[in-house]
Each structure stands twice: as C-alpha cells, then as structure tokens.
C-alpha cells in the first residue's frame, strides 16, 4: 500500500502516553510538517507554541476543564449517554483534557485565511507524529483556555488570534482500535 495512504489509515487519536519526553528533533520535524501545509494564498497564517513544562500544563488544565464542562452541559439533553460517559471521564482522570501528554503544541492563527489553513497544519503535524512512531491527538477542549489571562500571556495570544489546535504528542502507551467509519457520501457528476 502507498505509505501516505497507509499512514492516514493507521493514525489514531492517542489519549494515553508514556511519561518519556519527546526529542527536540522530533518536535522540530513535526512543526516543520505543519509549516509545510497548504494555505490559502500561501498566507501561512499560523504560529506554534510548544508546551512541555508540567506546571504550565497544570494551569492549562485548570483553565480548560470548567469550559469543557460548560460545553458538555449543552448536550446533556440531546445525548445523555455520551454526556454521562464524558463527564465520568472528566471526573475520574487526572488529566482528562491533555491526557498527560509530554508535549502540547498549540497551533495559533490569525487573519482571513486562518480558518481554512490552520486545520491543515494540524493534520500534517499528526501525520508526521505518526510517521515518527509517536502518538498524537487534536483536543478541542484543550483550546478552551483563551478566557484565562495567565494562559493568554503564556501563549502570547493576541486579540485577533485563535487557537486551532492543541496537538498532543508523545510516546503512546498503545493505539486504540480503528473506529467504525461510514462509507463516504459521494456524488459523481
């Protein structure tokens, strides 16, 4: 099988990491892969913040967790089983947002083309991590920290900027099974 297609099919969202640190060389390669992503009008509207400091990650968790719970309450009535399962995880795990990943890379973007371009950088980074034998996970709840002044300062987040992904990176404790995928909805014209 084609190695790119193979990587796409085998990459998984990893939520359990070994405490082993990731090498700077690997982090640099992952960021380079993000930077190579296509962008509208070649705008390259992104920048990257690498967080490895355990105290900084604890502060980020304290900022993100209440916001995650607020968002989950919005689905309490429409999907009570899912709500209960996720709330249980949030209560039971030590770090239910960043999963104690040794590296959290924030992809931060601004400008007219960021909404279309920054997610492409995130996907490139996750595929690069997979190709290096590392696990990764894009965590939406992890981006819900922009209302905390200390985290805004830590990320040097400007008013016009938006967080597109904290991408977790680390040595996986294992890989989850492939989730069921729907057949692609395709129309040929």
What does this molecule look like?
Helices cover 41% and strands 15% of the residues. With 189 residues, the chain is α+β, with helices and mostly antiparallel strands. Helix 2 (24-35) runs antiparallel to helix 5 (114-131). It is globular, with a radius of gyration of 17 Å. The mean pLDDT is 94.
Give the helix tally: 6
**Which of globular, elongated, flat, extended, rod-shaped describes the shape?**
globular
Class by helix and strand content?
Answer: alpha+beta
Examine the secondary-structure arrangement and name the CATH architecture. Answer: 3-Layer(aba) Sandwich
CATH topology: NADH Oxidase
Helix content: 40-55%
Let me know the average pLDDT: 94
Distance between the termini: 28 Å
What's the CATH H-level superfamily name?
Answer: NADH Oxidase
The CATH class assignment is: Alpha Beta
Strand order within the widest beta sheet: 1-2-4-3
